[in-house]
Amino acid sequence: MSIGSLVLAVLCAAGAGLLWRRRADDPPTDWPLRAARTIGPIQGEPAGPASPRFSVIVPTYNRGRVLMEAIESVLAQRAGDFELIVVDDGSIDDTGERLRRIHDRRLRRLGLPHRGVAAARNAGIAASSGALVSFLDSDDLWKPDKLEREADFLARHPGVGAVFSDLEKHDGPRFAPSFMRTTEVFSPRLREGGPAEMVLGAREMYLWLLQEAIVKTPALTVRRRLLESVGGFDVRWRSSEDWELLLRLAQATPFGYIDRPLAVIRVSPDSLHRVEQARGDRLMLQLLAAYRRAAGDREVRAAARRGIFNRARHLSWHHLDAGRRGAAAAACLRWGLALPSSGLLLRAAAGLVRPSSRRAA
Prior knowledge:
Layout: H1 3-13, H2 16-19, E1 54-60, H3 64-75, E2 82-89, H4 95-100, E3 107-112, H5 117-126, E4 132-135, E5 141-142, H6 146-156, E6 162-171, E7 174-176, E8 197-200, H7 202-211, E9 220-223, H8 224-230, H9 241-250, E10 255-267, H10 272-275, H11 277-294, H12 298-321, H13 325-338, H14 342-349
Parallel strand pairs: 1-2, 1-4, 2-3, 6-10
Antiparallel strand pairs: 4-9, 5-10, 6-7, 6-9, 8-10
Helix pairs in contact: 1-14, 7-9, 7-12, 11-12, 12-13, 13-14
């Protein structure tokens, strides 16, 4: 018997059945074949003569201390034809009081009971009227020319439904001046002296997004009618909801890319990215597995397989960072068996010796 076969037999006997037990917050097993019926089309009115060009949606929950900086970065945009809708998702801190101090006719506050970021963004979209919809999280920032450059790009490329840009990323002591150049699948497209912008076909975006979340929401603008056609954010997701939406968008439209950091994301210990990371990774693994099962061609299946492998590694690293060695091994075991992947199985068997360096997630 080969070493790989022996490892597989031992790990299966050690509790694979337990690892495959469904959790209460696992997604439905028929995703993505089932439409997100809980969403439906966004019921906002089309932009008319009196409507702003952009609708900027900022969801927030108990982030009053950082929200003001995000709002200031929107109000400082050189392209001033926008409405700014801050969706307060049931905050119990001083968010409301801080918002009342801002006197700008472009700003509206929408107060809701706490339902999560996907529901908050959908509520903001439904209350908005701009032909272009942009998103900013309450702890992130925009550069002053963000909306201006996106408007110019979309005006020159009417067949493109969404545009995104590079961004700066702050994660504790780590700083990436170009997030896109830290990605595994997209960075090879970027070279010194390369094009300042490009149109990316729907299929190539779909294949990239099956492997990695290369688009961050604060760097994204989408045409309203496209959002309506795909159904907005899925409220069943409380984390990684943006990645799930991007996969649907990439099946419907080409994307534009601006090779310039127009947004700044700031990851802190209480960021949703950190707090809900394990749950979001687990849901994305389930979704990628569903896309892989439903794929009708080899290229899509291969891309989904690489995405599952990479996301399982990230999930195991997250558990290791938190001291949950057993959970880290379980993640590699579960998805090593599902693919199957000898690399993931060996990580589980060897106790997951963490690599000395990792790419940014």
